[in-house]
Amino acid sequence: MRAHERYGLKRVINARGTYTPLGVSRSSERVREAVGEALAEFYDMDELQAAASRRIAECTGAEAGTVVHCASAAITLAVAACMTGPRIDRVEALPDTTGMNNRVVLPAGHAVNYGHPIVQDIRLAGASPVLAGSADSCSINELDGVLSGQSVACLLLVSSRLVHGEPISLTGAVAAAHRRGLPVVIDGAAQDMRIGELLATGADLVLISAQKYLAAPTAGLVIGRAESVAAVRAQEKGIGRSMKASKEGILGALAALDERQTLDLLQWRDRQARKVSDFAHRANRIPGISARAVPDRAGMPISRVHLHIDPARVGQSAGAVAETLRAGDPSIRVMEDDAENGVLALELVPLDSAELDTIIERLDELSSPHRDS
To answer: Which parts of the chain are beta strand (E)?
Structure first.
């Protein structure tokens, strides 16, 4: 008996993407086997993390890497590392930052809420977030002006589709911080296919969520300069104790990284593009619905399907359609960020053909009672 039946859980078709409240992703058989093996064995965890660092470096071209509990934890620990370095007295003092520089500067448009405010990740380390520019824009000069404060500890830049306003040059922002001798952290949670690009900005640390498109167990990857990674590892003697990675998280993440090394990205992109194109073609046949492919705004090599709902022909607003899909069995979850404008977005990457058929059937059922009206 599967967990859905055992515990009375509703089946879910996740067209929202790598969304934490829906379990994020589906792991491959190879990753599941690695997790199962890990659960049955003992390891020297320092030795395991050292092996993980070597493998992360081999896969990414970085100097070093480590695995922490999740990407949110990685933000807090990276901020902590920028304040303490490897000094154990400082590590053990946090979140008391007496005597430490503790200001973390980030563009105002990067102060996102991804389930909770990202500035809370900063405050959990005892640091104080300081916003540069406005929610609409932040120039390099505006960023540099805030970085000039003497108590700045590190710069936090977020790479996410949730980011607001005009994009800022990550390379330019990193250079501005480095001119002032400040380390830079880039949160690239869902950008695991862009690790090389993010490291190429010169950032000291790049943070990745292992359970998103890598489809590993819950884990955060901290990748970058050896001394910065070592300072993150040192946090396990302090606030990082509650944010440490498990053995199955580490080995699952490494299995996912190994699998990524064998992925033919061009073929993968072609498969995803065909899936999106075919689905949009089918959705466009449903009266009252128009569909198109929209590339990922953050630069990942995927597109999503945007459905424009005509309430006069479908009989419901886009928001009501999303609610009806959610209330069914299986429960179909879609992105509703632009529902007020009549648009629902669907990410199809983890979905199989049967699930895609179900979504089309449910959309068709919603529309059919109103076709002759």
So the answer is: 12-14, 64-68, 103-107, 128-132, 152-158, 184-187, 205-209, 220-224, 289-295, 303-309, 331-333, 343-346
Number of domains comprising the chain: 2
d(CA 229, CA 81): 8
The domain in which residue 56 lies consists of 27-261
- Closest alpha carbon to 279 in 267, 292, 270: 292
Structure tokens at 335: 């992105």
Shared domain check, 98 and 53 = yes
Residues 50 and 150 in one domain: yes
How far is 205 from 56, CA to CA, in rounded Å?
13
Question: Is residue 8 one of the residues assigned to a domain?
Answer: no
Q: How crowded is the C-beta side of 355, counted as CA atoms within 13 Å? A: 18
Cβ proximity of 320 and 327 under 8 Å: no
Strand partners for 335: 345
pLDDT over 70 percentage in the chain: 97
pLDDT at 31: 97
Helix, strand, coil % (nearest 5) of the chain? 45, 15, 35
Domain match, 286 and 205 both: no
Examine the domain organization and report whether 159 and 227 are in the same domain.
yes
What is the rounded distance in angstroms from the CA atom of residue 354 to the CA atom of residue 345? 19
- The model's pLDDT over 216-229, given as tens digits with 9 standing for 90+, comes to 999 999 999 999 99
Q: Is the domain of 147 the same as that of 230?
A: yes
